[in-house]
TrEMBL record:
Secretion signal span: none
Positions carrying N6-(pyridoxal phosphate)lysine: 293
Record field: compositional bias (Polar residues): 484-493
Family to which this protein belongs: Belongs to the group II decarboxylase family.
Molecular-function annotations in GO: aromatic-L-amino-acid decarboxylase activity; pyridoxal phosphate binding; transaminase activity
GO biological process assignments: carboxylic acid metabolic process
Entry keyword set: Aminotransferase, Decarboxylase, Lyase, Pyridoxal phosphate, Transferase
Reported cofactor(s): pyridoxal 5'-phosphate
Statement: the UniProt record of this protein carries the keyword rRNA-binding: no
InterPro entries in UniProt: Aromatic_deC, PyrdxlP-dep_de-COase, PyrdxlP-dep_Trfase, PyrdxlP-dep_Trfase_major, PyrdxlP-dep_Trfase_small
Top-level lineage group: Bacteria
Organism: Pengzhenrongella sicca
Protein name per Swiss-Prot or TrEMBL: Aminotransferase class V-fold PLP-dependent enzyme
């Protein structure tokens, strides 16, 4: 028996060495993957071997084959999407979660990890200023966190309308009207589709993507029946926050359930300096967030919070004779999430919160917002670049003179490898979107990233000058352009 467990040693030692190499190499590594998936398949696919392979050798093969296709998401210069890095305590806890291999669904059978998750949930409610009696569920990501909160909302508003959803299903039920801002995140639409509720009715938003209160008031008054209102804490392009408190008051006056998609923005509540962005948010009925984004724990770790446990457990809970019942009180974790069985993804959240403490979480969030402001200031100093949003949180949206130039700058930037800022489309124009999510980003990363954009913009401008010279077209000042000698684009990494 001892020999069997000693067989883990070689594989784990190799994995640890590769993990250390990966982490220590992040500061100097080009951000983007070097090899595409189809090419990687040559080493990963093929015929399944007829016999066993030593576990340590398998780790060697896997690391060698996969490494060229890895994105350096943990780099302080990765700003491509809202993806955080990984705090040391959270990473180590995640390793333990895999080694322990507990099914975190039942309180009676796996009390160790369930207790850690319950402690983390209580800390989160306190840290984020949410109702102490709320249910907290650890799900795969923000999409399923939205799904969970909206499932509870669907359950409650149909119950209020006198419909027995559990027995009768949705066929023949009163239509659930869902109102959402025009710039809600697509994960809200996806969750609604999963729930059979269809597309939301969109309420106009302002120039920063915030839902307009006057338009919401009109939309609420224009209909009746079971209603859910989806609000947003942190627009994915501008970082802006809906006026959650006043919007929730309007919705509740019409008997609606209020759900807040706070995938990365809900963490602003942990910062005394930024909490005002969320004014009135605690009056909502459910909230969704993602610890992998702002809290910097490993994938995957969404968090669903529901103020009233009854509709959540009615929507997602199940009872079977073979299940060990939880003791009276908090109930079982599987009653609060869509999954019956799952890994203990809340344990790294406990580790992250315990390692940072209240002040550390506030410093983390404040640092992300501070770096976003610094990046915006740097972008504003680049010829032709324009910051389109009010930088109130962690998002920066930048555009150049026209869509073609913006796309060209983004392509050159990504090819350079110094930093990763994704292209997107917002306010009817192509943009370069910067999402600041990593605790590891420092002043040097900000400076290097700004300089990389400057180089890409200059190379793009030089290329446009050559093209105008070749075609005899005037430049932006109305003069025929002549490209400087030796102006071949060079994008440094």
């Amino acid at each position: 028996m001892t020999e069997r467990y000693e067989s883990y040693a070689g594989a784990l030692e190799r994995a640890s060495a590769y993990a250390r190499d990966w982490l220590t190499g992040l500061p100097d590594r080009p951000i983007g993957p070097r090899v595409a998936a189809d090419a990687l398949l040559a080493d990963l696919a093929g015929a399944l071997p007829a016999g066993p392979t030593d576990p340590a050798d398998v780790v060697d093969l896997l690391a060698a084959a996969v490494e060229p296709g890895l994105m350096a998401i943990g780099s302080g210069r990765f700003f491509g999407w809202v993806m955080g890095g990984t705090l040391p305590a959270a990473l180590a806890a995640d390793w333990l979660v895999s080694a322990w291999d507990q099914n975190a669904g039942m309180r009676y059978s796996t009390p160790g990890v369930v207790a850690a998750e319950e402690a983390a949930g209580a800390w989160l409610l306190d840290l984020l200023g949410l109702p102490a009696g709320a249910d907290v569920g650890f799900v795969t990501g923000a999409t399923m966190a939205n799904f969970t909160g909206l499932a509870a909302g669907r359950q409650q508003v149909l119950t209020d309308a006198g419909w027995d959803l559990d027995t009768l299903g949705l066929t023949g039920a009163p239509r659930v009207r869902v109102l959402a801002g025009a710039e809600r995140h697509d994960s809200v639409d996806l969750a609604l589709r999963y729930l059979g509720l269809g597309a939301p009715s969109l309420v106009p938003a302002d120039d920063q993507g915030r839902i307009r209160l006057d338009a919401l008031d009109d939309a609420l008054a224009a209909g009746a029946g079971p209603t859910i209102v989806c609000l947003q804490a942190g627009n994915v392009h501008s970082g802006a926050f809906d006026p959650i408190g006043p919007a929730a008051a309007l919705a509740h006056a019409h008997g609606a359930w209020v759900h807040v998609d706070g995938a990365f923005g809900l963490w602003a509540a942990a910062s005394p300096a930024l909490r005002g962005l969320l004014a009135g948010y605690a009056a909502a009925d459910s909230w969704a967030t993602d610890a992998h984004k702002t809290l910097n724990v490993p994938y995957d770790c969404g968090i669903a919070i529901v103020a009233r446990p009854a509709p959540l457990r009615a929507a997602l809970g199940v009872h079977a004779s073979y299940l060990m019942p939880a003791d009276p009180g908090p109930g079982d974790p599987f009653e609060r999430v869509p999954e019956f069985s799952r890994r203990a993804r809340g344990v790294p959240v406990w580790a992250a919160l315990r390692s940072l403490g209240r002040a550390g979480v506030a410093d983390l969030v404040d640092g992300l917002a501070r770096n976003a402001r610094a990046l915006a200031a740097g972008m504003a100093g680049i010829e032709g670049a324009r910051v389109l949003n009010d930088v109130v949180y962690t998002q920066v949206s930048v555009a150049f003179e026209d869509d073609a130039r913006t796309r060209d700058v983004v392509a050159r930037l990504l090819a350079g490898g110094t930093t990763w800022m994704s292209g997107s489309r917002w306010q009817a124009r192509d943009i370069m979107r910067i999402s600041v999510s990593n605790f590891a980003t420092d002043d040097a990363d900000v400076a290097a990233s700004v300089e990389a954009v400057r180089r890409a913009a200059q190379a793009s401008q030089n290329e446009q000058g050559r093209q105008r010279e070749d075609t005899g077209q005037p430049d932006r000042n109305g003069q025929k352009s002549r490209a400087p000698e030796s102006s071949t684009p060079r994008i440094a990494s």
